[in-house]
Amino acid sequence: MSDVSKSCSFVVVGVHVLAVNEKGQVLLKQIGDRWEVPGALLGLGEELEDAARRCFFEETGLVMGSMRLVGVFSGPKYRFQFDDEQAYLVTAVYATSEIYGEFFKANRIQYFSLSQVSTVVEKVHLNFIETFRKQSLPGVYQ
C-alpha cells in the first residue's frame, strides 16, 4: 500500500481546461491570491468532455469549441484537503483555442503569456501547462 493510499480518504475525478488565445496566452482564474487553470469536479454520471465544457462556462462565462485531451494527471502531488479529509485527485486536462463569448465580470479571469505563467500559477497547474507546451512545441522540449 502506498503512502498516498494510507493518508487519503477518497478519490475524486476532475477536469481542467487550458484555453489558449490567438497570441498563445493561457487563460487563468484567480481564486484568493492564487491563479489556476479553470476546472471542477466531475458530477455523478457526467462524461469528462461534458464536465470540461460545463466547468469552463461556469467559471469563465465562455463557451469552447473543439478540444483535445492533453493528459490525465494523478499521483502523490494531486492530494488536497477536502473539508476535514485528505482526497486524491485524478484529473483530465483538455486544451482548446476555440473560445467564444465574454468573461463573467464578477470573476477574476486573465490571459497570461507562457513566460509569465510560471510566476503566477499554482505548481500542480503548472504541470498541466508544461505538458501542453511540450506537446505543442516538441522541438523546444526534446
Reading the helices and strands in chain order gives HEEEEHEEEEEEHH
Kindly name the structural category: alpha+beta
Question: How many beta-strand elements?
Answer: 10
| Annotation field: number of helices | 4
Helix content: 25-40%
Radius of gyration: 15 Å
3D shape = globular
Poorly predicted tracts of residues: none
Distance between the termini: 35 Å
Beta-strand content bin: 35-45%
Name the average pLDDT: 86
Largest sheet: 5 strands, mixed
Short structural description:
The chain has 142 residues and is α+β, with helices and mostly antiparallel strands. It contains four helices and ten strands.
Structure description:
With 142 residues, this protein is an alpha+beta fold. The protein has helices at residues 3-7, 48-60, 114-120, 123-136, and strands at 10-19, 26-31, 34-36, 39-41, 63-64, 68-73, 79-82, 85-96, 99-100, 109-112. Strands 1, 4, 6, 7 and 8 form a 5-stranded mixed sheet that branches. A 3-stranded antiparallel sheet has the order 3-2-10. Strands 5-9 form a two-stranded antiparallel ribbon. The termini are far apart.
